[in-house]
Amino acid sequence: QIAEGGYSYVYRVKDQKGQTLCLKKIPAQHDDKLANAMTEVKMFQRMKGKTGFLELLAHNTLPARNGSKEVLLLFPLMERSLFDHVVEGKGVFDEKKAAGLTRKIAVALSELHRAGFIHGDLKPQNVLLDK
To answer: Which residues form the Protein kinase domain (predicted)?
Structure first.
């Protein structure tokens, strides 16, 4: 397990080819949790190919041990978040880099809103960096 959020768990996994990926597991004990998870799936499907969004490689809904369900989402692995960058003491971004990152976040949020979705949990831990 590499992360835990308010409603999900994130794991580092390997596929059959040995490629390291990210698996997000969302326990769905109630219908409303299942509906929220499926909304997340729809959001990633709709945002496919848009700048600033992870590519949803696969998803599945499975029965859980306790009789409820769990939704599994598979993504490329992003090793670092904005939070990690700051905590690891990498320092602050220079003005140009900070402005560029802020613009990318704003554009991604605008695309998300235009598609009819609201993020609802924007924080440094959820801003993933590719380098």
So the answer is: 1-131
What three-state secondary structure class fits 78? coil
Where do the domains of the chain lie, and which CATH numbers do they carry? Answer: 3-129 (1.10.510.10)
pLDDT at 95: 93
Name the pairing type of β-strands 58-63 and 20-28. Answer: unpaired
- Mean pLDDT over residues 20-26, rounded? 97
* DSSP reduced 3-state for 74: strand
Question: pLDDT by residue (tens digit) across 107-127?
Answer: 999 999 999 999 989 999 999
Side-chain-side CA neighbours of 67 within 13 Å: the count stands at 0
Q: Helix, strand, or coil here: 10? A: strand
Burial class (CB in 10 A: 0-12, 13-18, 19+), 10: middle
Q: Are 131 and 82 in contact (CB under 8 A)?
A: no
3 state SS of 112: helix
